[in-house]
Design goal:
By secondary structure, this protein is α/β, with parallel strands linked by helices. The protein contains 12 helices and 12 strands.
Length: 302
């Protein structure tokens, strides 16, 4: 497009009004300025757009063709402006969130509940998947934000921590008592007991494998479980010793339903938070990030 948009705006206003004087009042510019703009547009297009008469101006055949196109363009712009106004007024938008089943169940739900109550018109899409897949989709910009364990620092990512979690091993008191009765009080529980871990597709399992390898902890009887919910439930009914996240079983520990195994070297805590691309944003995403920052009481770190 060779012409300035303002020239088409003036042309459109004159064509609608059928009168230069009326268009000047509508646009708050002088009649000579309008006449000059129309003449310049006609010269550039090498086309006569209007014929003048005693009552004003009338579109030529060529002018009518241009008017139909400019009308469609300006109507679309008006629709776009109205849509943006609706987005601001009703906090409309769409957020795509990636999160593992475990973090969704125990952390994400509480954030979503409060956010949806405050911003009911923002559409939320949850993609339940592994943390590895969430990070890959963030890189591909196929999701907007993810809830993950803190990743290695990357220049293109912004991480908003929301809480620390601690991995521990738990069992029922009766399971440990029976294990010691059967194997002796000095039993190596990792060798003699049923050790329950998440499967190898889970990032938590990788974290536990690194810990056990570093501290020479060998497991003899391994039971792999696909979700943290199942792992906790299996520990509660006394199937074995489960590696769980302490914050998710605190009520069981407080009541004595489960007991925590004492380890020679405690497992280092991990930080959970929201991660998103530094170079991508939207009004809906900014609203969600601000809400999560306020709800967690933390500041983001780049």
């Amino acid at each position: 497009m060779d012409q300035n948009l303002s020239q088409y705006r003036i042309f459109y206003a004159v064509a609608k009004a059928g009168n230069i004087s009326k268009a000047a009042k509508e646009l708050y510019i002088s009649q000579p300025a309008i006449s000059k703009s129309i003449s310049k547009l006609e010269d550039t297009l090498n086309t006569t757009l209007f014929t003048r008469n005693s009552r004003g101006v009338q579109l030529t055949e060529e002018g009518q063709i241009l008017f139909e196109h400019t009308r469609a363009a300006f109507e679309e712009l008006a629709i776009g402006e109205q849509e943006l106004k609706r987005i601001r007024q009703f906090h409309l938008g769409h957020i795509r969130i990636g999160v593992s089943n475990t973090l969704c169940r125990f952390i994400m739900v509480s954030y979503l509940k409060g956010f949806i109550e405050k911003y009911p018109h923002i559409k939320i899409t949850i993609e339940n998947q592994s943390t590895t897949r969430t990070m890959a989709k963030l890189e591909q910009q196929r999701i907007d934000i993810g809830l993950v364990a803190e990743p290695k620092p990357q220049k293109n990512l912004v991480f908003l921590p929301v809480m620390e979690i601690e991995d521990i091993f738990v069992a029922t008191p009766s399971y440990l008592e029976n294990l010691r009765l059967r194997e002796g009080s000095d039993v190596d529980v990792f060798q003699a007991g049923n050790i329950m871990l998440l499967d190898k597709d889970n990032i938590t399992r990788h974290y536990l494998d690194d810990y056990m390898g570093h501290h020479n902890i060998a497991v003899n009887n391994l039971l792999e479980v696909t979700t943290m919910d199942m792992l906790i439930e299996f520990a509660r009914i006394g199937i074995g010793i489960g590696s769980v996240i302490k914050e998710f079983v605190q009520d069981d520990l407080d009541s004595g339903r489960l007991v925590q195994l004492e380890l020679e070297a405690p497992i280092r805590k991990r930080t959970i938070g929201f991660v998103h691309n530094a170079g991508y944003t939207s009004k809906a995403l900014d609203t969600f990030i601000d809400y999560c920052r306020c709800a967690s009481g933390t500041e983001p770190s780049a």
